[in-house]
Write a structure and sequence with these properties.
Organism: Streptomyces endophytica
Main location: membrane
Pfam family, one: MFS_1
Order of helices and strands: HHHHHHHHHHHHHHHHH
Structural class: mainly alpha
Number of strands: 0
Membrane topology: Multi-pass membrane protein
Largest sheet: none
InterPro entries: EmrB-like, MFS, MFS_dom, MFS_trans_sf, Sugar_transporter_CS
Length: 508
């Protein structure tokens, strides 16, 4: 009997444009507000104690609802969920840009997080079920991985330009044209594979436990930054997160239609991707924050100059993802891209541990940025592809949500953990050098730079750990190898080459 050949969507590359545009909007929104925050705080008279909520409100809603958003995409349809997420994100952005007071701004940020939790997993799962041929999949995920890795830095650049030349409100309004173009294009171009939805009933207990557990975890790290790691509220939130997430795992192992089928995370290759990607983001998010403050406060860069300073890192990420990762992905095993990529990025961070008050940007910061960009771009590309590789089409949404969850939780952990380390090192340096200080202002800057350098050393270790996990856990063969020799050591066919995965025929 002749073998059935899957129909290839002739508009798949046009679809990629709009999927990538939506992903860029979500990723850059995580950092674009950071540079605008001082201006918004002054304009709306937000207190120092409450300013963190402009960031935290988004992170809590986004991180807490991602698994739910992924399951909705599988159940309701990825295209429909994608367009709904874009429309809601645009409305929330308009509300934030027009905010007349603190409460409206915080509500808009939370609403952005809610719709972002629908948008992000549906975008990645659409990509996963649209591109099925190994080489095309490598190219598509190369572009997507570059955006996922470099979008945060693009947000810093765009935030600086908009804040300096217009005002902070445009860091919200800029999302509207992104969303309108992406939604219009998605409606006209994107086709969803037939038979790829998961019609099972929604797992309500799983939704409640996962959402509350992730919110408790993210909020716990936020409180640790402000109250301390051993404070009662911090420990209480971590304990609650542990109980809720363990209960979630227990429920998912017993219910007929789980929110997160454990088969998605029990595969060693996908588990390796989720763990290594989460650790890598821990290091990256903290670094963005430290270097933004270092460049503006110590080096006296303007917001635009600060954003432009990150541009070589973005270029490195794009090069690493599209020229290195995408070209080599079909030739060598993913772990031989991911592990070296994380090591190269760690080397770039190692260079940046040498920053001081009079550091030269071309001599030290630029090489560090370029190495970080190349390394992270090379590692992110296969990670994005492998995270949804081998899953059943009905699980594509929730597998995609796990990628975003690991990044979002990793970002929250990284910001809190590295900030706490930097603050402790800053205080210790100031105390030990107070007696011999010639100037209080000089000592303050020296202490700040020492704190940043110490935290970056920790980030180097975290990235090396990410590389070790990727090399140890990820043992799948190169995509499209298809030979028995390429089989995984654990014998799971679903974890192997892209060409071996059953692909549904696209609807016409």
């Amino acid at each position: 009997m002749p073998e059935t050949v899957p129909t290839v969507d002739p508009r798949r590359w046009k679809a990629l444009i709009f999927i990538a545009l939506a992903q860029l909007m979500v990723v850059l929104d995580a950092t674009i507000v950071n540079i605008a925050l001082p201006s918004a705080q002054k304009d709306l008279r937000i207190t120092d104690a409450n300013r963190q909520w402009v960031i935290t409100a988004y992170a809590l809603a986004f991180g807490g609802l991602l698994l739910f958003g992924g399951r909705v995409a599988d159940l309701w349809g990825r295209k429909r969920t994608f367009i709904t997420g874009l429309a809601g994100f645009a409305l929330a952005s308009a509300l934030g840009g027009a905010a007349a007071n603190e409460g409206v701004l915080l509500g808009a940020r939370a609403l952005q997080g809610v719709f972002g939790a629908l948008l992000a997993p549906s975008a990645l799962s659409l990509l996963a079920v649209t591109f099925t041929e190994a080489r095309e999949r490598a190219k598509a995920f190369g572009i997507f991985g570059a955006i996922a890795g470099g979008g945060g830095a693009v947000g810093l650049i765009l935030g600086g330009v908009l804040t300096e030349y217009l005002n902070w409100r445009w860091t919200f309004f800029v999302n509207i044209p992104f969303a309108v173009v992406a939604a219009t294009g998605a409606y006209l171009v994107i086709r969803e594979p037939a038979g790829s939805r998961n019609p099972s009933r929604l797992d309500i207990p799983g939704v409640v436990l996962a959402t509350l557990g992730l919110v408790s975890l993210v909020y716990g790290f936020t409180r640790a930054e402000s109250d301390g790691w051993l404070a009662g509220p911090t420990l209480g939130l971590f304990a609650a997160a542990a109980v809720l997430l363990l209960s979630f795992v227990r429920v998912e192992s017993k219910v007929k239609a789980p929110l997160l089928p454990l088969r998605v995370v029990s595969d060693r290759n996908r588990a390796g991707v989720y763990a290594s990607l989460g650790l890598a983001v821990i290091g990256m998010f903290g670094l963005f924050l430290f270097l933004t403050y270092y460049l503006q406060i110590v080096k006296h860069y303007t917001p635009v100059e600060t954003g432009l300073a990150f541009l070589p890192m973005v270029a490195g990420m794009i090069t690493g993802s599209t020229q290195i990762g995408a070209r080599l992905m079909t030739r060598i095993r993913p772990r031989l891209l991911m592990a070296p990529g994380f090591v190269v990025a760690a080397t770039g961070m190692l260079v940046l541990t040498q920053i001081d008050l009079d550091t030269s940007y071309p001599a030290l910061i630029l090489p560090g940025f370029l190495l970080m960009g190349l390394g992270m771009g090379t590692a992110f590309m296969p990670a994005m592809s492998l995270a949804t590789h081998g899953v059943e089409p009905r699980d594509a949404g929730v597998a995609s949500a796990m990628v975003n969850t690991s990044q979002q939780v990793g970002g929250a952990i990284g910001t809190a953990l590295l900030n706490t380390i930097a603050a402790s090192a800053t205080t210790a340096y100031a105390t030990s050098h107070a007696a011999g200080a010639r100037s209080r202002d000089l000592l303050k800057l020296q202490s700040m730079v020492h704190g940043y350098s110490t935290a970056i050393w920790w980030a180097v270790g975290i990235l090396l750990l990410a590389g070790a996990i990727a090399f140890t856990l990820i043992n799948t063969g190169r995509p499209g190898a298809g030979s028995p020799a390429a089989s995984s050591a654990d014998g799971e066919r679903a974890a192997e080459g892209a060409d071996e995965v059953p692909v549904p025929v696209l609807a016409h």
